[in-house]
Specification:
- The structure holds two protein chains of two kinds.
- Chain A is an alpha/beta fold.
- Chain A has ten helices and 15 strands.
- The chains are: A alpha/beta, B mainly alpha.
- Chains A and B meet through helix 2 and helix 3 of A and helix 1 of B.
Chain lengths: ~290, ~220
């Protein structure tokens, strides 16, 4: 394993009757936050379940902390904090009771941290989870995830269904977490604005395939949105465009190489940097007439 | 492992009260000589059914197995904990029903059930282990919700089984085969049949555990 990679996914494949994860590869260095984006059904949850060893891969390799995730399952999970998009904790139990069940499984469980987070998130210790709001449940999951010294925090759509204030709070906690250079976060989302604030790396998955997995700044520097007259859409320019939207007035297209397109079209088109949302939209939609 | 058992009990605190009330109800309804010998055995089967199914339904409800399988816990431990929980449920049932029986005696009602004894425990243990040895592999394959109706019918069969077996015994009581069987057991020290029952329970549960573990290791969440 290359030093400093906390998570390494290589040629990972999983086939379902209606969906295939097609030999995907990406890796996350230690000390960084990776946003895992893609539309619903792109394969984000499947990938996360594979990493968590909740489903079995058909082929490929998943290494966490340099260890195979299936053969070193328990060892790895000592060091992973997880937050899922829905609450899977027992609704009949209180945070106090859940602590009493879960804490013994972790060798480095930290009561001080746990109760600290409960206080910080203003979560009642003795109230049943079924009385919690969706946001409170997510915060509760996060409190558990961050209370046993986990070096890798994996989150599947933690911000979905939360209001902006909650989302901001959770993202702030993540930023604070990676102040510790040994720690990393992988979180999936379809809300691209989450990534603008916190993600160092972005892995974009679509239809079971990785579109890109690289540093956020690289993406924002290289992708561009081009607007112009329809005559500009011809044999020499088309290969530069990932997704094209044609209107009666002209076209709008996404390019992966903003510099080349600028040089090619010069003043004939308007070329601007693309936002993550535009990148996702155009890549997913392809050519729209 | 203890934590998992604790979890199964914590998520159903109400079951304790339910079983206590059920015990009172049962002693009143089945207060006749026909059921007298079997009442504790039947009660313990109900106790196991109730605790087991309630715990499994709670696991199903929020797909909490996703949490269990995300913790540093092996699948074997999760399966084993379920099997061990059955013994805990038998003991809890024995204590709760034993207390109810005792209360009836102390209160000097017209209805005075006998007290619970070791034979009750062994017989309940035997029947329950046959029952769950079949139930668990199905549970780990299909989940509690899918088996809801099946489990009611299946446990009811075992609930009435002691009564049926006793009838069977009485019908054939005069025959040579039963006489020889009785003679065999009477000649032995009481520990021999007890040890035989415990041995059978352990064998059944171990076999069933291995099948369940095989199924669960291949399960996806």
């Amino acid at each position: 394993m290359e030093m400093g990679k906390i998570l390494e996914v290589t040629n990972l494949r999983k086939e379902y009757t209606d969906f295939i994860l097609k030999d995907i590869s990406f890796s996350l260095p230690r000390g960084f936050i990776m946003g895992f984006i893609g539309p619903n059904g792109a394969g984000k949850s499947t990938t996360i379940k594979l990493i968590m060893n909740l489903v079995r891969k058909d082929s490929g390799e998943i290494k966490v902390f340099g260890l195979d995730n299936a053969t070193h399952d328990r060892e790895i999970k000592q060091n992973i904090g997880f937050v899922y998009d829905e609450n899977h904790y027992y609704e009949e139990l209180t945070p106090d009771e859940i602590r009493s069940i879960i804490a013994p499984f972790y060798s480095r469980w930290d009561d001080e941290a746990y109760y600290g987070f409960l206080r910080y998130f203003e979560l009642p210790q003795k109230k049943k989870l079924k009385k919690f709001s969706k946001g409170m449940k997510t915060k509760f999951s996060l409190a558990v995830a961050l209370s046993h010294g986990a070096e890798l925090v994996i989150m599947d759509e933690p911000t979905s269904g939360l209001d902006p204030v909650f989302r901001r709070e959770i993202l702030d906690i993540l930023l604070e977490l990676i102040q510790d250079e040994r720690k990393s976060v992988l979180f999936s989302t379809h809300i691209t604005s989450d990534l603008d604030r916190v993600a160092d790396y972005i892995t974009f998955i679509n239809k079971g395939e990785i579109v890109f997995s690289t540093q956020r700044d690289d993406i924002l520097e290289n992708y561009g949105l081009v607007r112009g007259n329809k005559e500009l859409l011809e044999g020499t320019t088309r290969p530069f465009f990932v997704g094209i939207r044609e209107t009666s007035f002209g076209f709008e297209a996404l390019t992966r190489d903003i510099q080349k397109v600028r040089n090619l079209l010069k003043e004939r088109a308007v070329v601007e940097k693309a936002t993550l949302e535009e990148i996702m939209l155009y890549t997913v939609k392809g050519v729209v007439k | 492992m203890i934590s998992l058992l604790k979890k199964d009990l914590l998520i159903q605190k109400k079951s304790f009260l339910f079983l206590f009330l059920y015990g009172i109800f049962m002693f009143i309804v089945f207060n006749n000589p026909v059921f007298e010998d079997m009442i504790y055995i039947m009660g313990m089967i109900i106790a196991v059914y109730f605790f087991l199914v309630t715990a499994s339904m709670e696991d199903d409800k929020n797909k909490s197995e996703i949490i269990l399988n995300s913790l540093p816990l092996s699948k074997s431990q999760i399966v084993l904990a379920k099997y061990l929980s059955v013994f805990a449920y038998i003991l809890i049932g024995a204590v709760l029903l034993g207390v109810v029986g005792l209360l009836f005696q102390l209160a000097a009602f017209s209805l005075t059930p006998r007290l619970i004894n070791a034979v009750d425990l062994l017989a309940a243990g035997m029947l329950v282990s046959i029952c769950v040895s079949v139930y668990f592999p199905l549970y780990f394959r299909f989940g509690a919700s899918a088996l809801r109706l099946f489990s009611v019918v299946f446990f009811l069969i075992f609930f009435f089984m002691p009564r049926y077996l006793l009838d069977l015994y009485r019908t054939y009581e005069g025959t040579e085969a039963v006489r020889l069987l009785n003679k065999f057991f009477i000649e032995q020290s009481p520990f021999v049949p007890a040890a035989a029952v415990i041995f059978i329970i352990l064998m059944l549960m171990t076999g069933s555990f291995l099948i369940s573990r095989y199924i669960y290791l291949r399960k996806e969440f």
